[in-house]
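In response to reviewer comment 3 from the previous cycle, which asked for concrete evidence that the modeling workflow produces usable outputs, we include below a single protein chain processed end to end. The sequence was submitted unchanged, and the resulting C-alpha cells are shown without manual editing.
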Amino acid sequence: MSVSVPSTSSPSRYVRHRIAVPVYGVVSAGTPSGPSGFDRTDRLYLPIPRELDRPGLEIYQVTGHSMDDGTERGIRDGEYVLVDRHDLFTRYDKVYAWIDPWNELIAKRLGLYHGRRALLSNNRDYDPITNIRDYRMLGRIYAVYTDDTHLRRV
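The workflow returned the following C-alpha cells.
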C-alpha cells in the first residue's frame, strides 16, 4: 500500500503549526530477513504538528504486516512511524524500532513471552522473537502518521 503525502522542500520549513521532518528510511513490520535498503532518490518531508516534535525525532515508513492486528492499535504497511531516538527507557507493552543482527530496522512491541523478555508483533500470525541479545534499540515509536490529517499516538 502506498501512502501519498504532501512533501516540502526544506527540513526547516514551518507549515501552519507544523514542522517538516525528513523520512529517514524504512522500518520492517515483518520477520527480520537481513539488510534492505531505502531506495528513495529524493528526500521526502512530512508535516508534523509542532507538539509532536522531539529532539530525537526520526520518521520511517513501515513495510510489512506484523504490527497490524486490524485494530486502532495496529501499525499498517505504508504508514509512517515517529521514532524518538532519545527515548531509550524500556517499558513493557511499548513499541520500539529495533536494529536486528543484520542491521535492518524492525518495529516490535517489548513484552514477556513465557516469562522472558521478547519482541512481540501485534499480529498473532507472527512468532515472537525470543533471542533478543543481538537486537539494539533505536528508539520508541510514539506516533503513527497515516496522512496529513491522520496522526495517532501509540
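The chain has one domain: 18-153. We consider this sufficient to address the reviewer's concern, and the full set will be provided in the supplementary archive.
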